[in-house]
Amino acid sequence: MVNSELKREIAEKLQDTVLQNALGRFAAAYPAARALAYANIDCEATRDAISEIKSRAVENIRALADQFTAEAGKRGSHVFRAANGAAAQKYIIDLLTAKGLRRVIKSKSMVSEEIHLNDALTQAGFQVQETDLGEWIISLAGHRPSHMVMPAIHLDRRQIRNYFTKELNKDIPLDIAVMVQEARQALRQAFIRADAGISGANFGIAENGAIGLVTNEGNGRLTTTLPRLHIVLIGYDKLLAKLEDAAPIIRALPRSATGQLLTSYCTMISGPTLVPYEENGEFKLVEKEIHYILLDNGRLNIADDPKFKQIYQCIRCASCLNVCPVYHLVGGHVYGHVYAGGIGVILTAFLNEQKEAATAQKIQELCLSCGCCKEICPGKIDIPGLIGEMRERFVQKEGLPFTLGIIFRQVMANRTLFHALLRLAYFAQTPVKSGKFIRHLPFFLSDMVKERSLPAIAAKPFRDLIGEIPEKPEKPRARAAFFSGCSIDFVYPEVGRSVLKVLQDLDIALVFPQAQTCCGAPVADAGDRETLLNLARQNIIAFEQLNVDFIIAACPACTEYLGHKYKELFTDDPAWTARAEAFTHKIREFTQVVAGYYAQLEMLPPPSADHDGIKVTYHDSCHMKRALGISSEPRALLQAAEGYTYVEMKNADTCCGMSGAFGVKFPELSGQLAQKKFASIEASGAAVVAVSCPACLMQIRGMLDKKAPHIKVKHLAEILAGR
Amino acid sequence: MPTLTNWTSLFPKVNHGSKLFAAYEPRAKGVLAEVTRVGNGKRAVAAIIQLLTAAQARTVVCVPETKSGALGLIAALESAGFTVYSRPEDVARYAQTADAGITEMEFAIAETGSCVQNDDRVEKRLCSALPPLHIGLLMTEHILETIPDAFRIFSRVFDAGYISIITGPSRTADIERVLTIGMHGPARMIPVFIDSLGGNADGKF
After folding, report:
1. pLDDT mean over A695-721
2. Which residues contact B47 (CB under 8 A, 6 or more apart)?
């Protein structure tokens, strides 16, 4: 299922120490830099403004394009609407040829990368010079950009010095300041000699036909000031209605991209001005020409797509890469096209006339769905949600891979069979079981698990245990139903017992409907909407007749599906939508319920069963923190628990690497993420790690079992049950 | 219609004034702009001469507008021994080899430590983009608070033409993310804030 080429590239990148060091340092520095940059404005209001402005623009995109074209024309600029990369290339080549211009300088343009303009111009005999330092470096190296804002982040000063030495044909010292001066001098000559300048645009304004350019180096200003011809490459997605609409984008772009309040230069241009021109030693000022190339290349199709039109909200800051745990490990090249990281997966799928759709299909599997990017995206794009939608559409079009199709539709959709097989797995695993862990889970995503240790299936699932536990209390404070999820039911029934005990201690009566089944997260993750709907209906039916005040889940992934996603599933079916809404309305996350009752009843968690003062730390599950928004309650409970000393670990909310099928598809990446988590845990000095998600429990326990068996991992329910 | 020139008449529509200098200054210095503030025109001229002398500048390109005209800046620089080019054709010829460029700027923005230049005239861009040192003249009272305030002004004045928002010197971090100044534009950016033009180089005030 996972492409072997991709696996090979990942292995290569994990070995690249230059890349690993650069990305490691950047990952560590970025969050604080970003936070500091946003300290003097309202970050959330800015994100709201951008998402509102850009979503309004896409609704109206054809009219905006017409207005932009007309207003630019009135001010003397030419506008060419290019359907695709080939049309844009042809227009530029014809224009340069007709004017007899040969020497072209470029300031940074991702659109130019998208349509592979440099290759086309070079092949047509033009001299093309990149002037952004990073772009120049990678053009010397013959690489693609590995980051939208920092294209050469994967190279170090030694490698770059060697490229400079070769290009400039002289010895260059290993001193970044001197290297930059050498680049300035070399590129300055190119600017002075250039006949034409090609730039991108960070935005285009319909009301006056202006474009905006944001740069740090000043190459944007020179590209648009010195040559007689200025060609602007701009995608439809960069159009805004009004000049004032650009303000929040200007505010957010540098803050999100590099943690700057503003880049050194922000330039706005509308219509030609004069340019200096030397003729026979005489300097004069002459009129220039501006040609805008408004590029479609898939963009207008997306504008009509109810879900994917969201990508118009992207301002190309690349902050989704900057916070992506997988990008931090592999860099940008693994993503196979010019756009890397979370948004890159989606842009790669839809821009470039879907030529790269196969690449996108391959690389989308790299998404952990951890939600870090969604949380900080200045355009508020639901990147993991869109990647999920991509998977779903792919499955609708191409069908599920054969084995998954059988497992999901024949096994998981049939609860009796699914649970029977899980029980059978307990017996089947016994011969290879070692301690609490086994090498092979003999079925269930069977072709994916061979490289991983997974926990053993319990001898008795929670659904069998519950009948053996005497029902307390007699006069309950509240009546609740428990949705265990497969992991607690079949792998960690002791967590289920703890949930039960904690709630009984609060005088809450708990019922466990036996007809409940998988929440559907794993099948949804693989894009199987059909099975997800089937499972959702089974669960709604299992719970809707119960006379309970609420339904409790102690797995945040299950809670997200039951409490949020179910109600969005039945869009064409009002009756089921109503049933789903009634169901989701009752869903509560375990920790929040307990924290609420403790506060109401002025109760404290039970004291530590271990020695007094034992250090405990908390790992945030991605779903718990970013999908459910729960992060303070678990910490407060641990801080209040007598006998424990709470310590916060570094990067507590970074994904542990399990993330559904990701952990079994990319064991090497998952292992690296687990290793990072282990380093944070170890540095915290904690003897107990509390988690609120059974998947995290599985990943972290599996890792600590090998590396530091003296550190215990417990579900919060176990700690609150005094275990 | 080219970019309007009477920007200052619009300032009363947004929060502005010399009171914002205290907020502007640390942000500008934070991005390595060499912020200079003087009380009057005479001091401005003296400060500029001192800056150019310290930088061992000899050739200066300059685009005089109202402020430097009122200060008699070009005459003062020439009598201090600098070679000054200010005709557009001369700026076009000499900007790439000049030691410093001097322009007038419209306003500063406290939020980001930036200075805004109405850049329709290419010679202003050349003065502020090609030499290694750029001095920009501003009035201290012309400091706006936020980027949205600046865009409120732009949306009234900018129809066609060229506007630059300049925030410190030219910089790059493309090699190992190490901040390095002076990539393509000036390595030094010196905004000179003048509290009051009164008092020119001839000492009339």
Report:
1. 91
2. B36, B38, B192
How confident is the model at residue A355, as a pLDDT?
A: 61
- pTM of structure: 0.91
Q: Which residue has the higher pLDDT, A316 or A472?
A: A316
Residue A671 pLDDT greater than 50, yes or no:
yes
- d(Cα A252, Cα A318) in Å, to the nearest integer? 12
Closest B-chain CA to A75: B160
Judge contact between B128 and B117, C-beta under 8 A.
yes
pLDDT at A212: 98
- What is the Cα–Cα distance from B164 to B187, expressed in whole angstroms? 17
Give chain B's domain count: 1
Domain span(s) for CATH 3.40.50.10420 in chain A: 4-295
Give residues 112 to 151 of A whose Cβ lies within 8 Å of B: 131-134, 137, 150-151
Q: Write out the residue range of the structural domain in which residue B138 sits.
A: 13-121+131-167
For chain B, how far is it from start to end, CA to CA, in angstroms? 38
Grade residue A435 by pLDDT with cuts at 50, 70 and 90: very low
More confident residue, A456 or A533: A533
In a domain, B173, yes or no: no
Establish whether the linkage from the previous residue to A470 is cis, with ω within 30° of 0: no
Domain spanning A604-723 has what CATH number?
3.40.50
Of all residues in chain A, the percent with pLDDT exceeding 70 is: 94
**Residue among A176, A219, A221 whose CB faces B180 most closely:** A176
CB atoms within 10 A of CB A545: 7
Q: Do residues A482 and A460 touch, judged by C-beta distance below 8 A?
A: no
Position B177 in a domain: no
| ipTM score assigned to the predicted complex | 0.95
* Smallest CA–CA distance from A27 into chain B, residue: B177
Neighboring chain B residues of A22 at a CB cutoff of 8 Å: 176-177
Contact A40 B111 (CB under 8 A): yes
Q: What is the pLDDT of residues A152-166, one digit of tens each?
A: 999 999 999 999 999
**Contact check, Cβ <8 Å, B159/A270:** yes
Report chain A residues whose CB lies below 8 A from the CB of B147: 247, 250-251, 262
Angstrom distance (rounded) from CA A99 to CA A76? 18
Residue B181 within a domain: no
B contact residues 20-59, partner A, Cβ 8 Å cutoff: 27, 30-31
pLDDT tier for residue B201 given thresholds of 50, 70 and 90: very low
The pLDDT assigned to A450 comes to 44
Q: How many CB pairs below 8 Å do chains A and B form together?
A: 195
Q: Which of residues 515-544 of A touch B (CB under 8 A)?
A: none
Q: Residue B50: which CATH number?
A: 3.40.50.10420
The one-letter amino acid code at A710 reads: H
Closest CA–CA distance from residue B169 to any residue of chain A (Å):
6
Return the structure tokens found at A43.
């970050």
Cα separation, B61 vs B63, whole angstroms: 7
Residues of chain B positioned with their CB less than 8 A from the CB of A222? 129-130, 184-185
Cβ–Cβ contact A270 with B under 8 A? yes
Query: Any CB–CB contact under 8 A between B155 and chain A?
Result: yes
Best of B32, B111, B172, B188 to disrupt the A interface by mutation (most A CBs within 10 Å)? B172
Interface contact B129-A243, CB threshold 8 A: no
Token couple for A55: 């979503």
Neighbours of A702 (CB within 10 A): 23
The model's confidence at residue B6, banded by pLDDT at 50, 70 and 90, is confident
In this predicted model, what pLDDT tens digit does every residue of B40-76 receive, in sequence order? Answer: 999 999 999 999 999 999 999 999 998 888 889 999 9
Is it the case that residue A354 has pLDDT exceeding 60? no
| CATH fold group of domain A4-295 | Rossmann fold (3.40.50)
